Amino acid sequence: MKRLLTLAFAFVFMTGVAFAQDNEASLSQDGDENEAVINQVGSAHDATIEQGFSDTQQSYAYALIEQAGADNEALIRQRAFVSSQTNVHAILQDGEDNRARVRVFNGENLGGIAQIGTGNDGHLVQSSTGHMGGIAQFGEDNTAYARQSTGDNIVGILQFGEENDASARQKGGTDNLALIGQFGSENMAGDGSSSEPFGIYQDGSYNTAMIGQGASGNAASISQLGDGNTASITQNGGFAGDGFGALDVPVE
Asked: What is the pTM of this model?
């Protein structure tokens, strides 16, 4: 009997380990004032949170995904009912070979992605009015892409490590601000993807853009369309690519 209990315990334990290493979690919520949190520890996880995608939609949403381990993937999708309502979203990954995606529609959105490890990939897309978002990556071989549309938007990308890519795109609206900071070697400000190597691209008025790069082998590019824009590039190191030192676009 004692031997059977021992074998049963061992079976349960090994099954738990298998689940801990290969878990998948998915949450879907609709209605008002929803909160969702997924926490995964281990490796090869997959997590998804969706809020406001039925006919009822929602007025407020909070979503958080935390992953510690290797080969993790995380996705947050949120949609507000009207543009004046708020979505809050965050993905935190501590490990290697992680992938994070945030897709937010409507509302005044606030959130970001933080990745600690190697081989990470982070995309942040915020649509509608009044966004604030950021991507922070600590490690090597990271990529980042952030896109905002319409409204008074603020976006920042921060990378520490080597061979990192970064991209920021803001289109439409006024009073926008985009910042990229890279500290390491072989970094680029553009082509963190999606498609064109943006490296901060702005379409609108009263926009501000700044790129800061430290170490060597860096490249930078700023493109602005509209009135009253200001752009500044600072590079500290050798082998500068498309950077032009400091660039000021005067008010028209």
From this structure: 0.82
